[in-house]
Fold:
Amino acid sequence: MQYKRILLKLSGEALMGSQQYGIDPQRLQDYAKEIKQIADKGVEVAIVIGGGNIFRGLSGASKGMDRVQGDHMGMLATVINGLALQGALEDEGMPTRLQSAIKLNEVAEPFIRRKAIRHLEKGRVVIFGGGTGNPYFTTDSAAVLRAIEIGADVILKGTRVDGIYSSDPEKDSGATKFDNISFNDVLRKGLKVMDTTAFTLSQENELPIIVFDMNTQGNLYKVVSGENIGTKVNL
Structure:
């Protein structure tokens, strides 16, 4: 395997499958099988999931809801998604731990960096819920922050497209895909990879990002084993 310890970032929308909202049990099961493939090879796996399939604070704020209140609702949504993924992973026989940045002692451990690292060393899949625990920060920022804290080798951003393009490939048939691109070129070209806070934090800490299609069977294994899948962003 190319990487020993990874941080996998999944969007909440990815869990919807073909549904309009909520969680698709089949999609959960598919993801769990993909993650088990790499965990069985000794890769240490940490995961951050968004909550957009349930609630998005920014969307609520645009309709008049208090932004802080909305973001806290979004944080709780990520914990719900984390519990769902935890159940799917354990159905596949994998030991897991769910850690939350907000206190929910009955369902998740509090986030403690040293404990998270120890879980990874013992072969447990660690799911980080609750975002950063603070409003106004996205789960992209949470993913980068946690990846840096646990010493991950790379952030793998699983999406529904197969990499980073010059423009939206779903709208522009002439969009070209990048196999490799630098942080500076992403910023110069105005490409959307992560929100600016998360992207800058990753750049400052020299943490590479790989954007790939998580919904194609076997892609996660190929990325972790070093195959040229998706788009790699590095210095």
